[in-house]
Every structure is written in C-alpha cells, then in structure tokens.
Amino acid sequence: MFPFTHNPATLSLIINELGEDRENYFNAVAPPIIQTSNFAFKKVDELRAAFQDEMSTYLYSRGINPTVDILRKKLAALDEAEDALVFNNGAAAVFAGVLANVKAGDHIVSVQKPYTWAFKMFENILPRFGVTTSYIPGLTIEEWKAATRPNTTFFYLESPNSWNFTLQPLEEIAQFARERGIVTLIDNSHCSPLFQKPISLGIDLAMQTATKYISGHSDTLGGVLTGTKAMMKKIFDSEYNTAGAGMQPFNAFLMLRGLRTIVSRFERITTSTLTVLDSLKQHPAISELIFPFDASFPQFELAKKQMTGACGLITIILKAKTRAQIVTFCESLRHILMAVSWGGHESLAIPKCAGLFDHEFDPGNREHQMVRIYVGLEDPHYLIQDLEQAFAKANLG
C-alpha cells in the first residue's frame, strides 16, 4: 500500500460508505442524482426555519442538495476538516475563500506567480476595493514575516505549486498566521488530501480543484474548500450563495464516481510516474528535471515532512536553443496530449513557452524551456517511447 495520509480502512470507509444512507434511496449502490431545483415543505414553520438557516436543510439546490451533500461529507473527511463546500470550479472556490475574509483596505501576501485566476483576482478585482497584494517566493517563514504588514489579513499559498513545485513551510506559516489573526488558504490541488493534509498542519482553508484527481476522468469541473464549520457557514451565507457558484447535482454525481477509484488511480499514476522519471534522469535532451520526491529537489526534506508522496507531475527543462524546438517536440507527441490541467486518465504535456512569441523566447531563461508532463493511466513504457520519438524529431539530445 502506498503511504497515503490515511490508513487503508479509513480511506475505504470515507470513499465507499460515508454519507451514503442507501435505505433512503431504494438501497441503490450508487448515490442518485437528485436533479431538482427546490424542495417542498408541509409545515410553514419548517419553511421559516429553512429560510433562517439554509445550510442546515434542503431548500433550494443553489445551496444544499442531497447529491452534493454526500460529496461534501466525503471531501471534508478526507481533509480531516469539520466541513466542506463544493463549487463549480476551482477558481470559484478560491474567489469565495478570499472574498469572505478580506475587506477594504486589507493587505494579502501571496506566493509568486499564483494560479492564474487567483492572480487576476488579486490584480484586477480586489484593487477596486482598496485591497492590495504582495508576492513573495514564500520558501521560508522569514519571508512571510517580512512581508506581513499591520493590515495583512490573508495568506495565499500553493504547496507544491504547479510548475516548479516549490513548497512553503506550512506548519510554521500557520502558527505565525494564527498568532496574527491572519487567515490562511492553500491550493492543495497538486497533492490532494491523499498525499497532504493542510488542515492538520494548521492551515485554515484547504482548496483543491476537484476537476483533477477527484474527478479523474476529465469530464467535469469542480472546486473544494474545507475548514471549520463556522468558516464554511460564513462563506455559504455570503459568497457561496450570492455568487451562485455551487456545484450542480450531476457534476457531484460524476465526482462521486471518480472518487470511488482515486486510491487505485493514485497507486497506478505514482508507480508510472516513477518509471517515467527514471527514464528521463540523465537524458541528453534534458538539462534539469523537477519532481518533489526526487532527492535532487531543493526542498526534498520539506517535501518528505509535509507530504507522503507526489503524483503525476514532472517538469522537464529542455536543452532547447529555440522556441521552435520545443514546439516541434510538443507537436510531435503522438499519444501524450497537449492540454492544461492534470489528474485524468490521459497523459498530458504543456510547454511554458506557449505563452510566448518566437522573438520573446530566451534560451537562457530556464522557465522558457520548461515542459510539464502529467503521467496518466497509460502504460509508462508506451509514454516513454512517445517522449523519445518526440525528442528525436526536435533534435534534442
């Protein structure tokens, strides 16, 4: 068994049983899709109570829905959190988590180059209301302390991030933030709760893009926030319902389907990732290889302390002198698809230089030479052969 953050029995219980009251829906093995917009009441006072606390009952599927509720319970338990909210996508989850905890005049400290839609919120939306953001590498607690101002109320973390996999020391940051009354939110999409439990390390809000490993099939979108019941209620009563960003019943059903196989998928993907990783080490086409659980990773010791594993993502830095070589490499891949995201059954590649024109490419800038590989469920040797023929066509190595 792989070193997941939960023991096997606990994982099995959460994934296969928690929240599933089968006697309430004809003993169906799979939870039903309760595809309804609203719910009826027989008593006026029951309706009044629902108006007063919509999170405690089923009133309108914009808020709480039975199919969505089953997913919420499972995802909260996986994070060892008191409660969870599920959103239409990860961007909505980040937006709600931040907006619920900042006010005009506040200051945010964020990791450098955060998730695109977090960055757009920090740069394009929040400044309209007098909220400012500072960006730091965030590799040490000293950086977070130095960036904190009297009006700092929020820390935004990504550990690991999605390109060079840099980490933040979560326990130290969480302790400092609690002492200062600063709310912390981490994007935990890279690890998911199976390989890292930020709530247990003291982080207030754990976010993951359920589109990725939770779904596992690249056919639906979703976002998750977990934390205390009080925090989830605060977000539900305001940003969640006001923006109407909650997940729909059919999407929740697809997430539950994906969650059934997450352990098996993680085991397969982890094994295959290590096989592909070994084949790329010392490869003549590659100047550097980045993977959090490889001994060459600069923060390897911190990775082992905070995470129980790493899954799927490898960043390679190609010995490319031109952007055209990287373009040829990516366009020559026959079986590895070129696409954003990760976590599904299919292997993917995305070049950092996709955001550049040819004249902007700098062969001396390692970021311009980055290609991120996601190892899916295919046979790893099948993927290695695909990479090799693409290296050759691009005259790399």
Question: What can you see in these coordinates?
Answer:
This protein has 397 residues and is an alpha/beta fold. The protein has two domains: 253 residues, Aspartate Aminotransferase, domain 2; 132 residues, Alpha-Beta Complex (Aspartate Aminotransferase, domain 1), CATH 3.90.1150. Helices cover 38% and strands 15% of the residues. The strands form two sheets. The protein has a seven-stranded mixed sheet with strand order 1-7-6-5-4-2-3, with helices on both faces. α3 crosses α10 and α11 crosses α14. It starts with 7 loop residues before the first helix and ends with a helix. The model has no long low-confidence stretch (mean pLDDT 96).
Features:
12 strands, seven-stranded mixed beta sheet, alpha/beta, 14 helices, globular, 397 residues, 2 domains, Aspartate Aminotransferase, domain 2, Aspartate Aminotransferase, domain 1, five-stranded mixed beta sheet
The main β sheet shows up as: 7 strands, mixed
Give the name of the CATH architecture of the largest domain.
3-Layer(aba) Sandwich
* Low-pLDDT residue intervals, each spanning 5 or more residues: none
Biggest sheet strand order reads 1-7-6-5-4-2-3
How confident overall, as mean pLDDT? 96
Number of strands: 12
CATH class of the largest domain: Alpha Beta
Count of discrete structural domains: 2
Briefly summarize what is shown:
This protein is of the alpha/beta class and 397 residues long. It has helices at 8-16, 44-52, 66-78, 90-99, 116-125, 141-147, 170-180, 192-195, 229-243, 249-260, 262-280, 300-306, 323-332, 380-393, and strands spanning 83-87, 107-111, 132-136, 152-158, 183-187, 205-209, 223-227, 286-290, 313-318, 337-338, 348-351, 370-374.
